[in-house]
């Protein structure tokens, strides 16, 4: 300090000024660098959450489809609007799923926009919008994913027979097949269908499985019916423009305007075989959409076709000519 | 005080000695600062250029491994005009892009036309580059997409290393029978394959399912579809994992419902070629559904994975390995220099 009370002179101050400026610039750069690093980390975290959601949507979606189908099977009551009910349930589960990211300071939202048919009847299309935010960072992505109904470990059961047979004795589950007992006979009788007795103790497939015998004419390859037998034994489903899609099956519809699927409902094996001239050799055609079609001309008849006999029992089904052609099977004489 | 030094200088001097010395010091400091600024500016320019190179390299690598390219099936096109390459696999079942899982057909196509597809479309034309994919498993050969040596007069080199999944051979798995040790669901007979055409009538033996929980021997049977086109372009093998099967009773057969066989074959310690058997089963038909039946003693301690897998026609036998059946972790190394 000089004798006039100044700590430093003017020139000393001017000399020191650049030092202050440089310190300020350095502090600013360090703070900026830390901000950039933090933003990079947040960005990575946001993308990871979006990826995680994208991966989990089909898995959670399949659980919803299976649970809804099992609910219909349990109650026998169809869904009034399967697309909306599945969408709402799916939305609830996604909301719960998104909450687990909140602990990391991330706001994740997955909005299920639509649940609808896919061009492939063994898939359901889900459109969704994912929105993930952390701090000032936001990431939004719109997705369209197909959820497969086919899964070996966690197969999805077909709800339609349980809706149709409710009130007629009900269908039950035996292993991986649906056992109709007298319910199908009662159901057909209530609609005034002839020879409904043919479907006493009939069975059909429980789980939706895609048939490998494609092209479908392979079922009757070379005049042999062994492929048809194997298809029926395994309970495979086939693509069909007449059969109902999975979402309409949940609503208890056997036919719908969408591209759907069909499977065989086979009568119980018999020790004796009805004569082909007998009226009992003629019954409703074995496709599920034909048997369960409530509309008047929807149900049509087919002739008996024995696809296997094991020396004690005849294994047979009733099939109309157009379906015989589709599956490459010999027409009725 | 300042005013006095100019106006009240009795010797007529404009500057005092102090002032002159201060000005000299300030001039020196300004000079040094200007020089430092110049050095800093050139350093920043270098840094910015390097950052730009780093950005270009990183984004090019990410573009290649995270997108399937445009159009998505560009590897099938003859004319590559307007194509932007990307190597990510598309799931054939769902149609979804699988980022960081690379498609070998796209890699092979990029290998053929590397310069045309990379320069000006992925990297700026003034950049040179090499691309090599090294499997983490060192027993597998690296995939050299392009491996020019770096020029000696290069001023800047940037290398990006990303971990990806990649299969260096275009294989297909028709049947995979999973080791029961990997999935407890398989302990239940329902979890093991489908009902096969061997139903025990018309002289054929019945293929009861193996029951690992109760150690009962039996079969696991799985179907698969084959066409003549696939058969003519693919070498099929039965491969086990581990290669050596401890279960002495284990055997396999391939047949079709229309022509059931009872002839079983033993597993060997190496891949078993089965094209001959498949041809025999198919005959002249264009498409057929065949069955692979695998017999096991039911001992859960001696189980093994079984694959019926296709390798491109002419694949050398030493390359028929189980590692090639699934995408392997690899290092995707893109080197860019100017």
Notes on the structure:
The complex is a heterodimer of chains A (about 325) and B (about 350). Helices cover about 35% and strands about 20% of the residues of chain A. Chain A is α+β, with helices and mostly antiparallel strands and about 325 residues long. Chain A has 2 domains: about 40-150; about 160-325, no CATH class. Chain A has a 4-stranded antiparallel beta sheet with strand order 4-5-6-9, with no helix packed on it. Chain A has a 3-stranded antiparallel beta sheet with strand order 1-2-3. In chain A, strands 10-11-12 form a 3-stranded antiparallel beta sheet. Chain B is of the alpha+beta class. In chain B, the strands form 4 sheets. In chain B, strands 3-4-7-16-5-6 form a 6-stranded mixed beta sheet. A 4-stranded antiparallel beta sheet of chain B has the order 8-15-10-13. The radius of gyration of chain B is 34 Å and the shape is elongated. The model of chain B has no long low-confidence stretch (mean pLDDT about 85).
């Amino acid at each position: 300090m000089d004798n006039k009370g100044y700590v430093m002179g003017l020139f000393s101050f001017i000399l020191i000024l650049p030092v202050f400026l440089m310190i300020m610039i350095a502090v600013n750069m360090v703070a900026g660098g830390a901000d950039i690093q933090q933003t990079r980390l947040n960005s990575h975290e946001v993308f990871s959450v979006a990826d995680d959601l994208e991966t989990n949507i089909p898995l959670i979606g399949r659980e919803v489809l299976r649970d809804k189908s099992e609910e219909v099977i349990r109650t026998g009551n169809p869904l009034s609007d399967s697309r909306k009910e599945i969408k709402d349930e799916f939305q609830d589960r996604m909301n719960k799923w998104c909450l687990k990211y909140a602990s990391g300071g991330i706001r994740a939202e997955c909005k299920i926009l639509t649940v609808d048919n896919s061009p492939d009847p063994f898939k359901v299309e889900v459109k969704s919008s994912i929105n993930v935010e952390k701090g000032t960072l936001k990431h939004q992505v719109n997705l369209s994913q197909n959820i497969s109904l086919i899964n070996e470990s966690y197969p999805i059961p077909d709800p339609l027979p349980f809706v149709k047979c409710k009130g007629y004795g009900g269908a039950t589950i035996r292993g991986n097949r649906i056992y109709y007992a007298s319910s199908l006979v009662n159901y057909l009788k209530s609609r005034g269908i002839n020879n409904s007795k043919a479907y006493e103790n009939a069975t059909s497939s429980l789980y939706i499985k895609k048939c490998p015998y494609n092209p479908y004419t392979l079922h009757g390859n070379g005049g042999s019916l062994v492929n048809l037998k194997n298809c029926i034994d395994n309970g495979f489903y086939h693509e069909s423009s007449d059969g109902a899609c999975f979402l309409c099956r949940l609503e208890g519809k056997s036919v719908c305007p969408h591209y759907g699927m069909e499977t065989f409902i086979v009568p119980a094996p018999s020790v004796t075989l009805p004569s082909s001239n007998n009226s009992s050799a003629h019954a409703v055609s074995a496709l599920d959409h034909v048997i369960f079609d409530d509309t008047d001309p929807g149900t049509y008849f087919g002739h008996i076709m024995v696809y296997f006999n094991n020396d004690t029992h005849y294994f047979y089904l009733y099939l109309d000519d157009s379906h015989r052609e589709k599956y490459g099977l010999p027409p009725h004489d | 005080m300042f005013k006095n030094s100019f106006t009240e200088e009795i010797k007529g001097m404009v500057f005092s000695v102090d002032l002159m010395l201060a000005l000299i010091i300030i001039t020196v400091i300004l000079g040094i600062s200007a020089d430092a600024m110049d050095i800093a500016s050139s350093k920043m320019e270098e840094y910015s250029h390097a950052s730009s190179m780093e950005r270009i390299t990183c984004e090019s690598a990410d573009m290649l491994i995270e997108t399937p390219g445009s159009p998505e099936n560009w590897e099938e096109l003859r004319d590559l005009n307007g194509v932007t390459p990307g190597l990510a696999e598309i799931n054939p079942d769902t149609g979804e892009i699988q980022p960081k899982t690379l498609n070998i057909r796209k890699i092979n196509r990029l290998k053929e036309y590397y310069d045309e597809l990379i320069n000006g479309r992925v990297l700026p034309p003034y950049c040179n580059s090499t691309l090599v994919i090294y499997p983490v498993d060192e027993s597998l050969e690296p995939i050299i997409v392009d491996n020019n040596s770096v020029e000696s007069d290069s001023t800047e080199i940037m290398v990006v290393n990303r971990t990806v999944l990649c299969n260096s051979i275009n294989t297909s798995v028709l049947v995979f029978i999973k080791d029961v040790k990997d999935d407890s669901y398989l302990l239940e007979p329902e979890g093991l394959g489908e009902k096969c055409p061997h139903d025990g009538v018309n002289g054929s033996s019945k293929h009861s399912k193996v029951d690992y929980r109760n150690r009962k021997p039996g079969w696991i049977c799985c179907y698969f579809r084959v066409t003549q086109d696939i058969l003519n372009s693919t070498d099929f093998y039965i491969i086990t994992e581990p290669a050596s099967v401890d279960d002495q009773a284990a055997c396999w057969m391939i047949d079709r419902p229309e022509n059931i066989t009872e002839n079983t074959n033993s597993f060997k310690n190496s891949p078993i070629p089965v094209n001959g058997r498949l041809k025999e089963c198919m005959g002249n038909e264009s498409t057929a559904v065949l069955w692979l039946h695998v017999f096991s003693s039911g001992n859960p301690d001696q189980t093994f994975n079984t694959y019926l897998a296709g390798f491109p026609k002419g694949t050398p036998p030493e390359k028929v390995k189980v590692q090639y059946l699934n995408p392997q972790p690899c290092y995707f190394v893109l080197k860019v220099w100017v």
